[in-house]
Here is the input.
Amino acid sequence: MTAFTGSNDCSPARLAVTRAGLHRVAEHVLAAARYAETGRIGLMPSPGGFRTPPFGTDDKFLAVEGTELVVGGAAGTRRTALTTIRAAAEFAGVTPGAPAQVYKPATPVNLDEPLMIDLDAARLLAGWYRLGAQAMSHLAAEIPGDQPGAVVLWPEHFDVGMTAAAINYGASPGDDQIPEPYLYVGPHDGPPPGDPAFWNALFGAARTFRQIGTVAEAAAFFRDARDRTRAAATPIRRTS
Here is the structure.
């Protein structure tokens, strides 16, 4: 199975600045473009970064690859360096701004503030999204009875996630609580009691990119968390 190829040497500061810049692009350019055409906001991981699904009559798509914005479709593909939200939106022919009627934007639009995106950090995050998405897809194939939803990169949270049988599974690029990229499992009823070593976060369980190195390890973590959640919810049968 696929191994995670991101560099563990990427500094937390570079990761944080890059994550913030890419999150702004996801909300105010890619999600804005898809919402204007389809009323939908979900994105998806793609090689080197993330993208919209095809939309419109010409199967147009917008993608981020490393430090570049890619605009493609039936007429071909073109790309430009990511410098500011204004420049990216103009290149894509998009009115910038997250769809505030759907959710409260998580990042400021700041049209002319430079996008400080480090290439190594962007590649690390892209690899992490890919690993998480593949692990969730493997798990979904194993648990059809849980009615797993689609694996989606949500622009408001900027994580890749799916929900199955009242459990959230996901891959986050990091946040204020856990600054490094991490996988998470969040049962809707909260973490089961009695095992704080496993359930190490308020929402459930988290493992960082320094603890998970392959799709197989990620899928095993998701599977273990599901089994523990289900076991905790199953009444103990007593016999006399």
